[in-house]
Amino acid sequence: MATTADFRNGLCLxxxxxxxxxxxxxxxxxxxxxxxxxxxxxxxxxxxVIPNTFTSGVKIDIARxxxxxxxxxxxxxxxxxxxHSETYEQISIEKEMIDNFELxxxxxxxxxxxxxxxxxxxxxxxxxxxxxxxxYSEPGLKGDxxxxxxxxxxxxxxxxxxxxxxxxxxxxxxxDTRTGAYSERVK
Length: 187
Known about the structure:
This protein is mainly beta and 187 residues long. 0% of the residues lie in helices and 54% in strands. It has 3 domains: 2-62, SH3 type barrels; 65-125, CATH 2.40.50.140; 130-185, CATH 2.40.50.140. The protein has strands at residues 2-3, 12-15, 18-28, 36-43, 49-55, 59-62, 65-76, 79-84, 90-93, 109-115, 120-125, 129-137, 150-155, 160-164, 172-176, 181-185. It has a 6-stranded antiparallel beta sheet with strand order 1-6-2-3-4-5, with no helix packed on it. Strand 4 (36-43) and strand 5 form a beta hairpin. The N and C termini lie far apart (50 Å). The mean pLDDT is 88.
């Protein structure tokens, strides 16, 4: 058992017979009345973020979770298939459990979150940035750089990303996996 004093971003807890992770929290001590903790909790099964307020000092159940390194192998009709980097154990996960599935490339390393008591996969996360090659993009017009204009580009995984006009076919770009947006060109 833990209390609200143990809250930190990323902490997994059991709440209302479900598993949640803390996205954001804030301790509040109003001038009148007891202190409380305002939180945003993400449901690990549905991905839905809900706001919740805990009275300061209330007891909570912390869920035991483990982060394990996996490598993306391929996608088939059963979902996405991964292999544990150390034990070579393979696992298949449904497409709905994966964020930014259009940025997954074969051989990509990911980190999976497992519930330690039931050994079930909860989430699958890419590193913060991935490097992908631009397969197709329209050519940019020379001299059209007065503003930050963007164009659509298709990367090797099939995802469409907005990139600056100077990006050409065959170039590697770095993409932020949290937002799915272009970050920079890779030299």
